[in-house]
Amino acid sequence: MHRLILIGIVLLTALAGTARPPVTRAAENAPSTARTPLAQGHPTCAGVNTAQPSTPECDALMLSRPYPNVSPLPVDFGVIAGTSFIRFNTTQVPLYDKPGGAQVDTLSAGYTYVAVRQVSGNWAEVRPGRWVDLSIARFAAPSAFTGVLINGLDMPFAWVLWRHCATNVPTGARNCEGAGQLNRYQLVNIYATVNVNGWNWHLIGPGLWTNQQNLSIVYPTAPAQFGGQWVAVNTYEQNLIAYNGSAPAMATLVSTGIENGEWDTDPGTYTVRLKLENGPMDGGAGGDDFYSLDQVPYHMYFHGLVALHGAYWHDSFGYTHSHGCVNMTISDSKWIYTNWVAEGSTVYVYDGE
After folding, report:
1. Burial class of residue 184 in the structure, from the number of CB atoms within 10 Å of its CB (0-12 exposed, 13-18 middle, 19+ buried)
2. pTM of the shown model
3. Neighbour tally for 48: CB within 10 Å
């Protein structure tokens, strides 16, 4: 998240003077080549077009390879496993000395999630000796979505972003029967692409087409070239891909900054400066956009106070949502934090439109 006020002397010291620095443009961090044109399908389906929306060769490929060559990551809540979080439906939260006891303080809550220390009946302890009435709160439900390990990639694949029906041909009749009913987070191959009136339509199965707006697409070709392990964040597709050199190893959906001129996630080439396994985030004190979040997991700071990190408070992955940070599910952020990103790793943020 963008413009964070982070609690903790270690974090503030490590990041002193780094809030919103210029984008790194050093030669060693710059992409080595211009972006390669993206593959729009599988070569076997090259004969597919608006006049001929299927070919025997492409039909055979779709039947033999109906699912992307990937393996889903396991759900793993890591450092916050077993912890519950609540948000309040009022901005002034009474704090009591015990369940049903005397009010001793008031919590000013904006977009606030607090960790629950223990529960007693309809009461929760949120700070030592400070209890809240759960009738004015609701529990967070961390997303169980996970990204995928990429076993091989010779054509694009995508996640379906929302439940909708495919069409039988580009711009054609809706097909809601059987495989034509597409569900959020469903994985599909992209066998071919045609452009109709400026919009890309993607062939995702036999007689199944969908518009580019309905998908978050992962392409076989890296958007830049860096050595070793690095990550690319595509703010158009709202996804992240972990690369080893030019080879994609893992991919997932993310939520970057809301594009309002203030909270955008800025494009550029960055270096991870600090990793922190768990800690609070807050910002916007005194404003309408005030937020305070307990125990945010797996911070990886790459642009001042902008970070890759886990988010337990929403399930909007594939859409912008944050104040500038790159939100991931807890499972995905743990995998990236543990297996891929080190201090000094490159984070490449770009608009893939």
Report:
1. middle
2. 0.88
3. 22
Give, in order, the Cα–Cα distances in Å from 256 to each of 95, 264, 344: 34, 7, 21
9-35+223-350 adopts what CATH topology? L,D-transpeptidase catalytic domain-like (2.40.440)
Give the count of beta carbons closer than 10 Å to the beta carbon of residue 340. 17
| 9-35+223-350 matches 43-74+153-218 in fold | no
Judge contact between 310 and 293, C-beta under 8 A. Answer: no
Residue 138, beta-bridge partner list: 87
326 in Cβ contact with 317 (< 8 Å): no
Q: What is the pLDDT of residue 63?
A: 97
SS3 of 214, please?
helix
Which residue stretches of 67-143 are H helix?
none
For 310-332, write each residue's pLDDT tens digit.
999 999 999 998 888 999 999 99
Q: Which residues pair with 95 in a beta bridge?
A: 105
CATH assignment of 43-74+153-218?
Answer: 2.30.30
Task: Give 327's strand partners.
Answer: 255, 309
- Residue 16 CB partners (closer than 8 Å, separation 6+): none
**Domain limits of the chain?**
9-35+223-350, 43-74+153-218, 85-139
Helical residues (DSSP H) of the chain, grouped into ranges:
9-14, 56-64, 330-339
Please, which residues bridge with residue 281 across strands?
A: 293
